[in-house]
């Protein structure tokens, strides 16, 4: 094929920033084709999916609530992916954090425990997620096992563990045999930001995490050692950065943030333990991290965009009886488009005359 | 009391469970030997399962369903090939994207078939041999997918080791720059290897929805694509070891079901997590023993020809 990729040395910031926008547009075109293929009017579908949620104050709040876990997890994943460590098991770390944090909520349930419970739950959530995340890190450092596969396998293990707890020891005895725990006491619930509405304190936690991550990744030696360890491991080794410490560090951070997202979700919007506590936030956050160019501010914007696909998907499910899988198609297409757009921004495609090499 | 009939039935179900894994991991092994790590196996497999079921249900033909599943697997694999080979995008991210998209597309296709059933692919009884005690039913009373997986195993083993195509494919996977310098079309070969992987994953999906559990359920692959990926590492990229790995994991996933049936008081969720824990254990053991030996040297490295 007489085409070749030519690496661009100096890519302008504008071109880099344009890639996610182009990816979004491509996704919308693919989405329109999908709606037509499903026999739906694309204009009506897009209105329900992407426009109507933005016009309603209630769903706007819901948008922020759904973006919160994506932002937290996505920031953590940015640490991993910048270091070229492929943690794809954030969903499991999210569950592990939610479980450890909820343990305290249930252990103090019905007692007169004070307002220390909520902060302690957040700490336990972060610890639980970090410990779960450190398992693949340990297996990689100690045995050289692929962190991609081990972190993913641990998602299934964590979900089954949660399932066991809510159907067994943690089931509410007065809950008519439903597989769910008691509703958390007030001191174990995430406080709301305003008396009315859905916005909760976890959103502040996520924004603080984003600010802290921006500083750490952009302005500190730790951030630099993560970046250089990912892009030039040999140079990092010569500079004296310890590869193993980077592996443990980024997995601990991303696990902790995913765990934090998990306990915030359970103690906030959900309010009790259930067999399912996530519509796949841990996987969608991978897309948020990529779409946000592994930068906390970018991930913030990307989280809002992806949260919109969740909200729009729910709306389309109700009013158009469309399966929720439409949202997964959107999310997958978005990731594919951003990966392609990334390459097309960094490389230039040239026609090559008279060669047969492909 | 365990009699021969029960043991035979258990063995037969182990073979069935192992076949899905063997089919999918054979395809992935070929793609990886050509130097591409395709994490999209789960996505290709579930699209194969959905398209295969939809076609078989609508046409009434298992053969058409199977062919459609294989074709669907190939189509999905082209998404990965386009990103990872032709645009030289990061292979891990490209594979993940393929899986996420595949799960969504399969869900859309399958949503109108929830709750339906078809007749499972019939067992092809080989005369005389099926009558053998205990193993007869398990080995010689299987559906066509099982025999196909064994034939495919032989073909891949022979093809990789003994044919010119296999040699070129391995050269591309070991050192793409050298293969390119020798005039081999690296990206075309990788694309073909990925398409073969897609076809195998589609076939594995068809086995799942047309023979193993002859109905459609969303997320019915339940991580089997990922376990297939782990099996390739476990096999140290040697096809014959895939056979051992696939049957070992087939046995774990079937036996845990039977133990659940006995009701020994072990929480079912713990038993259900055994295949995943066993996968982690196998990965750890194999990487501790081998430390990355056996992996194609160019695995996961994008290739951009410089001239």
TrEMBL record, chain A:
The keyword Membrane appears for this protein: yes
Q: Which UniProt keywords apply?
A: Cell membrane, Membrane, Transmembrane, Transmembrane helix
How does this protein sit in the membrane? Multi-pass membrane protein
Q: Which InterPro entries match?
A: ABC_transp_permease
Q: What's the domain of life for this entry?
A: Bacteria
Tell where it localizes.
Cell membrane
Keyword tRNA-binding listed? no
* Chief localization: membrane
Where do the TM regions start and end? 12-38, 58-81, 93-110, 116-139, 199-226, 246-268, 280-308, 329-349
UniProt name for this protein = ABC transporter permease
- State the taxonomy lineage: Bacteria, Pseudomonadati, Pseudomonadota, Alphaproteobacteria, Hyphomicrobiales
TrEMBL record, chain B:
Give membrane topology per the record: Multi-pass membrane protein
Q: Where is the major localization of this protein?
A: membrane
> Which keywords does this chain's UniProt record carry?
Cell membrane, Membrane, Transmembrane, Transmembrane helix
Coiled-coil zones = none
List the subcellular locations.
Answer: Cell membrane
Extent of the signal sequence: none
Chain segments annotated as transmembrane: 6-24, 36-56, 62-88, 100-124, 144-161, 192-213, 225-249, 270-289
Q: Which Pfam family, any one of them, does this sequence belong to?
A: BPD_transp_2
What protein is this chain from? ABC transporter permease
Query: From which source organism is this entry?
Result: Ancylobacter koreensis
């Amino acid at each position: 094929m007489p085409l070749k990729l030519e690496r661009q040395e100096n890519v302008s910031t504008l071109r880099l920033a344009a890639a996610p926008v182009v990816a979004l547009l491509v996704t919308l075109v693919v989405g329109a084709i999908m709606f037509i293929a499903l026999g739906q009017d694309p204009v009506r579908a897009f209105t329900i999916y992407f426009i109507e949620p933005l016009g309603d104050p209630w769903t706007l709040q819901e948008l922020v609530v759904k973006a919160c876990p994506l932002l937290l997890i996505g920031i953590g994943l940015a640490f991993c992916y910048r270091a070229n460590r492929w943690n794809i098991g954030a969903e499991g770390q999210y569950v592990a954090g939610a479980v450890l944090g909820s343990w305290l909520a249930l252990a103090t349930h019905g007692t007169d425990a004070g307002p220390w419970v909520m902060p302690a739950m957040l700490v336990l959530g972060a610890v639980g997620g970090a410990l779960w995340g450190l398992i693949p890190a340990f297996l990689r450092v100690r045995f050289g096992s692929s962190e991609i596969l081990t972190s993913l396998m641990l998602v299934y293990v964590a979900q089954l563990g949660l399932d066991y707890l809510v159907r067994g020891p943690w089931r509410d005895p007065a809950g008519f045999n439903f597989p769910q725990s008691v509703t958390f006491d007030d001191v174990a619930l995430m406080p709301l930001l305003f008396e009315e509405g859905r916005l909760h304190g976890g959103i502040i936690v996520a924004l603080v995490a984003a600010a802290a991550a921006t500083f750490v990744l952009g302005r500190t030696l730790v951030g630099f050692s993560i970046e250089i360890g990912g892009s030039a491991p040999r140079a990092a080794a010569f500079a004296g950065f310890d590869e193993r410490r980077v592996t443990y560090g980024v997995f601990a951070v991303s696990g902790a943030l995913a765990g934090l997202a998990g306990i915030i979700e359970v103690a906030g919007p959900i309010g009790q333990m259930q067999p399912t506590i996530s519509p796949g936030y841990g996987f969608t956050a991978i897309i948020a991290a990529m779409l946000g160019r592994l930068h906390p501010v970018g991930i913030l914007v990307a989280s809002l965009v992806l949260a919109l696909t969740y909200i729009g998907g729910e709306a389309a499910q109700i009013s158009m009886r469309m399966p929720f899988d439409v949202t997964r198609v959107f999310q997958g297409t978005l990731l594919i488009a951003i990966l392609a757009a990334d390459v097309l921004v960094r490389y230039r495609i040239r026609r090559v005359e008279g060669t047969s090499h492909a | 009391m365990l009699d021969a009939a029960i043991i035979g039935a258990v063995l037969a179900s182990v073979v069935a469970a192992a076949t899905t894994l063997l089919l999918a991991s054979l395809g992935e092994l070929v793609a990886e030997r050509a130097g591409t790590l395709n994490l999209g196996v789960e996505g290709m497999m579930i699209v194969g399962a959905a398209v295969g079921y939809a076609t078989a249900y609508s046409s009434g033909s298992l053969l058409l369903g199977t062919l459609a599943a294989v074709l669907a697997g190939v189509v999905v694999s082209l998404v990965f090939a386009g990103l990872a080979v032709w645009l030289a995008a990061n292979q891990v991210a490209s594979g993940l994207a393929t899986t996420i998209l595949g799960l969504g597309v399969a869900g859309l296709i399958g949503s109108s078939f929830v709750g339906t059933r078809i007749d499972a692919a019939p067992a092809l009884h080989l005369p005389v041999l099926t009558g053998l005690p205990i193993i007869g039913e398990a080995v010689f009373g299987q559906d066509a997918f099982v025999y196909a997986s064994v034939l495919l195993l032989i073909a891949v083993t022979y093809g990789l080791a003994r044919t010119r195509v296999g040699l070129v494919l391995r050269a591309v996977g070991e050192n793409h720059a050298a293969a390119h310098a020798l005039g081999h079309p690296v990206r075309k070969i990788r694309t073909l290897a990925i398409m073969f992987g897609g076809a195998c994953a589609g076939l594995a999906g068809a086995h799942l929805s047309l023979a193993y559990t002859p109905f459609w359920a969303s997320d019915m692959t339940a991580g089997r694509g990922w376990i297939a990926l782990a099996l390739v590492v476990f096999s140290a990229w040697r096809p014959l070891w895939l056979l051992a790995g696939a049957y070992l994991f087939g046995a774990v996933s079937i036996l845990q079901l039977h133990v659940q049936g006995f009701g020994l008081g072990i929480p079912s969720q713990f038993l259900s997590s055994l295949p995943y824990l066993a996968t982690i254990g196998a990965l750890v053991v194999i990487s501790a023993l081998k430390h990355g030996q056996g992996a194609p040297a160019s695995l996961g490295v994008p290739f951009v020809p410089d001239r």
